[in-house]
From TrEMBL:
Domain of life: Bacteria
Compartment annotation: Cytoplasm
InterPro entries, per the entry: Biopterin_syn/organic_redct (IPR051721), NAD(P)-bd_dom_sf (IPR036291), Sc_DH/Rdtase_CS (IPR020904), SDR_fam (IPR002347)
Any matching Pfam family: adh_short
Protein family (similarity comment): Belongs to the short-chain dehydrogenases/reductases (SDR) family.
Name by which UniProt lists this protein: SDR family NAD(P)-dependent oxidoreductase
Keyword RNA-binding (UniProt): no
Main location: cytoplasm
Gene source species: Paenibacillus planticolens
Keyword Membrane set for record: no
UniProtKB keywords: Cytoplasm, NADP, Oxidoreductase
Length: 256
């Protein structure tokens, strides 16, 4: 008789680089199946596992997300799943400028990718897994920028504050029934990725904010993506994943 192997499925957005790539790399295991999403395919990541399905998708395209979720669900054998996890990680920093300097296009993209796409993905995820009495968790990667404000980052901060409130609200809706989806928002700390690099490159009107990001880098205060990913996975799979919470204190050791 063949033994039934129960699998954990991870849907991760923003896996072409940075934190998303680091989380995907650490989640690779024979008992895990990964569904990775970004605009640009990550060939190096794909080469590491035959249990990884990559979908090239632009999350600025909100209208296509329901179809995207159908495509994702086709990769999941619901009967053999012991857990399904959605990590809303993809985000953009732009526009890193005073609000009157930002184009309406850039403002829309920011809110689409950082807030509306995670909202629609959450809605589709809950609808698609409603009937399953297995572990179902959503981790929204937010930011301390939801609370700590800097000139030039108004729309980024607004999107992350929105993500935190959204997570708390959906947590309330879901409650603690056996079929509930658990949802948490987390501030991952400052991490050495291309997003930080972008923040160090000032335009004239955000020079003071860029100085702060340069100082943080110069003082060795940035964690590596791998160290931050380790903490996030511990949160996602551990006992401290409290329904509707916003985890502000997750910190990887800088320089690790
Ligand atoms: N780095 C930090 O210090 C820091 C601090 C607090 C919070 N965070 C949060 O951590 C998360 C990861 O950030 P990171 O630092 O790893 O950033 P990153 O290196 O810039 O990576 C961002 C990822 O998001 C994807 N992405 C961007 N726009 C997309 C779109 N339109 N459609 C699909 N995917 C898109 C990118 O892939 P493509 O370009 O290939 O699409 C990339 O894989 C974000 O939510 C960020 O807000 C970061």
């Amino acid at each position: 008789m063949t033994e039934l192997i129960l699998l954990k499925y991870f849907i991760i957005t923003g896996t072409s680089r940075g934190l998303g790539e680091a989380m995907a790399l650490q989640l690779i295991s024979p008992e895990h199946r990964l569904i990775c999403i970004s605009r640009k395919k990550n060939d190096a990541l794909m080469a590491k596992s035959s249990h990884l399905h990559y979908i090239e998708y632009d999350l600025n395209n909100i209208d296509g997300i329901e179809t995207l979720m159908e495509q994702i669900c086709r990769q999941i054998d619901m009967a053999n799943a012991e857990g399904i996890y959605l990590i809303n990680n993809a985000a953009v920093l732009a526009p890193f400028s005073r609000i009157e300097q930002a184009s309406s296009q850039a403002l829309m993209t920011s809110l689409h990718v950082n807030l509306l796409a995670p909202i629609v993905l959450t809605s589709c995820f809950i609808r698609s897994t409603d009937h399953l009495q297995i572990e179902k968790r959503i981790l929204n990667i937010s930011s301390a920028s939801a609370k700590h404000l800097l000139p030039g980052m108004s729309v980024y901060s607004a999107s992350k504050a929105g993500l935190d409130i959204f997570s708390r609200s959906v947590g309330l809706e879901q409650g603690n029934e056996p079929t509930s989806v658990k949802i948490v928002s987390v501030w991952p700390g400052m991490i050495d990725t291309s997003l930080q690099e972008e923040a160090r490159n000032a335009s004239q009107d955000t020079a003071a904010s860029a100085d702060i990001f340069r100082m943080v880098k110069d003082r060795g205060m940035l964690a590596s993506p791998a160290a931050a990913a380790k903490q996030l996975i511990k949160l996602l799979l551990g006992h401290s994943f409290h329904q509707g919470s916003v985890v502000e204190e997750l910190r990887a050791e800088p320089g690790t």
